[in-house]
């Protein structure tokens, strides 16, 4: 790697660096993850199109949209951007394909953050889909046009809510000095031409943007999920059978597990970065593992979709068994037995 920045000082502190703290390890791990995840995403996409039974037909489009944005995030993290981060500072360098396209370095983290925000909006969309199917709920989105406007506004906000502080052309040589105060001896990748420092630390506008971004995801998610759970378990209606409510609980449990398990792959690295920021803790190997965990989001998401949702799980098993007579239309042809005593239903039955 060629040294670009003039503030580079030769030092023995970079000798005998662990392989896990190197960009070589992270790139190998990124590409290995991509080799597994991208074909699996394509297979999952085809499975949803082919196998989704009639009783789940209203989940089909939200699942496909969520899978599309999940695959986009995978591509961003493992191939296109491939970020090498320098926590506790808000700094990093792109090692991916976009590095050679001439895109200004500061816009690459913007694209990555937007991709993460889109995943949050997709989680809300999946929960709203379940919420809208509960007949006892009166306060819900009923018209498709209203739904399109609502989620269109969410997608718009995902693109523009964090845009403001990317428009400021900061002096990178000055910004880098704030990093050196926290990380006296950063990895040599910090001197790459595409290394970018986004924040000094303590700025209000980025804090406000991130808080607003979290709010448009967390608040609707809590409302749609808790409201749905309440109506499924505590609101009685003589026109709704227990078998129907059990089926709705089952679908909700699918969505809840599909949201929560991959969400940990996004939340854990963010929590680690906050910990590192609070205590000025710099460990490049842990930085690499945290980003690798985030890059595994798509692998977790597609695996949950294929294994937790029964029609898809049985289709996957039929593929492994070589069963060419598998008929998706026969899936769940019979009524689900009453599960009145079950609060959320089982996703694995």
Explain what you see.
The structure is a single chain. The protein has helices at about 25-50, 55-80, 105-130, 145-160, 170-180, 205-235, 240-280, 285-295, 295-310, 310-320; strands spanning about 85, 90-95, 195. It has a single domain, classed as Up-down Bundle (Rhopdopsin 7-helix transmembrane proteins). The relative contact order is 0.16. With about 350 residues, the protein is mainly α. It contains ten helices and three strands; from the N terminus they run H-H-E-E-H-H-H-E-H-H-H-H-H. The radius of gyration is 23 Å and the shape is globular. InterPro entries: 7TM_GPCR_serpentine_rcpt_Srh, Nematode_rcpt-like_serp_H. Pfam families: 7TM_GPCR_Srh. Keywords: Membrane, Transmembrane, Transmembrane helix.
Which terms would index this structure?
349 residues; mainly alpha; Rhopdopsin 7-helix transmembrane proteins; three-stranded antiparallel beta sheet; disordered C terminus; 7TM_GPCR_serpentine_rcpt_Srh; transmembrane
How many separate domains make up the residues? 1
Low-confidence stretches: 333-349
Radius of gyration: 23 Å
Strand content: under 5%
**Order of strands in the sheet with the most strands?**
1-2-3
What structural class results from the helix and strand content? mainly alpha
Number of separate strands: 3
